[in-house]
Design a protein that fits this description.
The protein is α/β, with parallel strands linked by helices. The protein has a four-stranded parallel sheet with strand order 2-1-3-4, with helices on one face.
């Protein structure tokens, strides 16, 4: 990672659950130290209400988020591209880091089923932050 401010793109087919929660966690935990994007190859009409509710339980409001279409530019402009175990493929560019996080799909699930996915995503995001975010200097 050569960028002073690394950029991360979370990709999931519908960009309505896992990728939205991951983007929210990264924004919440890393603040302005990371540029955060999320997108999907076939975006849904809205973010999964169970994902919105699960994130609200931990004090993170994603009600204003909208699923976005994955573009080649979004991948090109990101240092790290993370797919969410949903079989989505990203265009491959040299010098990018590609990860696939194997996560259960929250689609059609209630909040109780989404909570463990939310918590697993938080753990993965925390580990990612330690790898890519420069330490704050006073």
């Amino acid at each position: 990672m050569t960028a002073e401010k690394p950029s991360v793109l979370f990709v999931c087919v519908h960009n309505a659950g896992r990728s939205q929660m991951a983007a929210a966690w990264l924004s919440h935990l890393a603040g302005d130290r990371v540029e955060v994007r999320s997108a999907g190859s076939a975006p849904a009409d809205q973010v999964n209400p169970a994902a919105v509710a699960a994130m609200a339980e931990v004090g993170i409001d994603i009600t204003a988020e909208q699923p976005k279409l994955l573009t080649v530019d979004a991948v090109r402009e990101s240092d790290v591209c993370i797919t969410m175990g949903c079989g989505d493929a990203c265009p491959v560019f040299p010098g990018k880091r590609y990860l696939d996080w194997k996560l259960d799909d929250p689609a059609g699930q209630g909040v109780a089923a989404v909570r463990p996915i939310r918590d697993e995503i938080k753990t993965l995001v925390e580990a990612l932050i330690t790898e890519i975010v420069p330490e704050r200097t006073a």
